Amino acid sequence: MDLYNNNITGEIPRSLGNLKSLVFLRLNNNSLTGQIPRELTKISNLKVSDVSNNDLCGTIPTTGPFERFPMTNFENNPRLRGPELQGGAAYDSGC
């Protein structure tokens, strides 16, 4: 799903986690806010997720497919913290 550079606002829908066949999720260069939904960590087929250049907050997930995404896919989100430490900061930290 390539939705980059579309001037999209609002939060990333948690319902995207229901798309179990999703392989690419490019949401970079928009005006998205809120947290990265943890439902996305359950999509085992997800190979690419880029949310850079938005206004996301909270922490960066580190489980499931997010274990292998480079940090550059999350950069330029001034309120985003991370990566999330298991047992460390609450996932909504900074929102």
From TrEMBL:
Does the keyword Ribosomal protein feature in the UniProt annotation? no
> At the top level of its lineage, which domain of life is listed?
Eukaryota
Q: Where in the cell is it found?
A: Cell membrane; Endomembrane system; Membrane
Give the chief site where it resides: membrane
> Where is the stretch described as Disordered?
68-95
Spell out the InterPro entries in the cross-references: Leu-rich_rpt (IPR001611), LRR_dom_sf (IPR032675)
Keywords, sorted A to Z: Cell membrane, Glycoprotein, Leucine-rich repeat, Membrane, Phosphoprotein, Receptor, Repeat, Signal, Transmembrane, Transmembrane helix
The record's Gene Ontology cellular component field reads: plasma membrane
Regarding the membrane, this protein is recorded as:
Single-pass membrane protein; Single-pass type I membrane protein
Q: Which family does it belong to?
A: Belongs to the RLP family.
- What name does UniProt use for this protein? Leucine-rich repeat-containing N-terminal plant-type domain-containing protein
- The source organism is Picea sitchensis (Sitka spruce)
